[in-house]
Amino acid sequence: MEMLKEESLKIYLWENRLKTFEGWPFDEDCSCTPENMAKAGFIHTPSENGPDVAMCFFCLKELEGWEPEDDPVKEHKSHSPSCHFISLKKKVEELTMEEFFKLQKERQKFTVNKACKDAITRFEEDAKERRANIIKTAMGEE
Ligand SMILES: [Zn+2]
C-alpha cells in the first residue's frame, strides 16, 4: 500500500522535518526557530522568491512571510484549523496503531485534495491559453 511506504511516514518525526530547515532565516532569539517550526508540523519548502516558505507535512498548508515573534503552532492552527496533526492531543509516538492509521487516512485526504486542486489549476491555465489562441486565430492574427 502506497500510504505505508516508509518514506512518507518518516516525516511524522519532527527530527526529520527539522533537517529540512537548512538556510531558514530565523534562528536565534525568536519564536519561529527551525526546532519550533518542525515541532509544529512544518517542513521548509523554499522557492526562488520565498526563502521562508514552510508547509505542513500533513495538511499541506503553505505559509510564508514569517516574523520572528510568530508562534508556529498558533499560526498553523489559525491558518489551517482543519489540520488533524496540529490538533493532536498526543505525540505521534504515543498514538495506538489504530489512531495512527486513522490519522494517516486523514492525511491522504489532504494529499488527494491538493493533487486535484493542482490539476484543476493546470487545466484552467491551459484552457485560458487555448482560448486566447483560438481568438487570435479567428481574428487572423496568426
Ligand atoms: Zn497542518
From TrEMBL:
It comes from the Eukaryota. Keywords: Cell cycle, Cell division, Centromere, Chromosome, Chromosome partition, Cytoplasm, Cytoskeleton, Metal-binding, Mitosis, Nucleus, Phosphoprotein, Ubl conjugation, Zinc. The keyword Transcription does not apply. The keyword Ubl conjugation applies. Gene3D superfamilies: Inhibitor Of Apoptosis Protein (2mihbC-IAP-1), Chain A. One of its GO terms (cellular component) is nucleus. It comes from Salarias fasciatus. This is Baculoviral IAP repeat-containing protein 5.2-A-like. Belongs to the IAP family. CDD domains: BIR. The gene is birc5a. It is found in: Chromosome, Centromere; Cytoplasm, Cytoskeleton, Spindle; Nucleus. GO terms for molecular function: metal ion binding. One of its GO terms (biological process) is chromosome segregation.
